[in-house]
Fold this sequence. Notes:
Blueprint: E1 3-7, H1 16-29, E2 34-38, H2 44-48, H3 55-59, H4 65-75, E3 86-87, E4 92-94, H5 100-108, H6 116-122, E5 130-134, H7 141-149, E6 152-158, H8 164-180, E7 186-193, H9 200-213, H10 229-232, H11 240-243, H12 248-261
Parallel strand pairs: 1-5, 1-6, 2-4, 2-5, 6-7
Antiparallel strand pairs: 3-4
This protein binds adenosine-5'-diphosphate and magnesium ion (MG).
Amino acid sequence: MGKVIAIANQKGGVGKTTTASNLGDGLAQKGKKVLKVDMDPQGNLTTSAGIETEIEDRKNNMYTLSDVMLEKINNDRLLDRNEFIVSKSLTDIIPADMSLSGVELALVNTMSREYVLKEILDNIKASYDYILIDCCPSLGMLTVNSLTAADSVIIPVQAEFLSLKGLELLIGTIARLKRQINKSLEIEGILITMYNKQTNLSRQIKEILEHNYGQSIKIFKTPVPKSIKVAEAPIEGLSILEYSPGNVVANAYRNLTEELLHA
Ligand SMILES: Nc1ncnc2c1ncn2[C@@H]1O[C@H](COP(=O)(O)OP(=O)(O)O)[C@@H](O)[C@H]1O
Ligand SMILES: [Mg+2]
């Protein structure tokens, strides 16, 4: 059975999508069968993998995550996986686009609304070693669905801006979900991203995280450094691991992969 890992932080721009993309490819390069799930209506994971979800593709029968979730919500039916899973060079992806924001609304009046994504993933889990969910920047029903479906959570935290209140809120939400809905949910660790060892701010944020959380939550050993290449890779539809394997960020994500595999 595949391990499901949600990559979550309700703050945008902290490196969730970059982490989902690169950790996914890192695990695939280690011979693991990986599925990435785009759970953000902004669809950044989808477009950065070079997948178009425009009308043209829909004519070719390409469904996105919102179609799969709405079919489950409205008709309690699971679509055929071949209709919504896209195979890329290293991993499979369930794409998403703006229509996913409509699912958030549809979930409000749904029975067992926390479990929709879980039921979809439970059905395909056996085909993968790892399923990574790229969460959206909110703590709404889409993220609750992600955390309900997940075995563990990776929390990317940007080393340029620290919201301890935001982090408390996220960790509190995870704890409440664990008590009420998903007893086996664990925090895999906090991943420091966009780390610049030359700046005091980056070093201070790392120290605060280690001081405040280091006792109870794992802080992954290698912070992900900042590199301009990270912005270039998605334009080519590639992860940094594929686009620039020798880059410092590629290196950091390979270290994260090893740490996860040996946890
Ligand atoms: N290690 C990094 N170095 C430089 N830029 C990065 C790094 N990680 C992410 N970025 C950039 O920061 C922005 C936000 O990253 P992203 O992964 O999309 O965050 P989120 O999914 O949390 O919104 C993107 O433009 C991305 O290219
Ligand atoms: Mg994102």
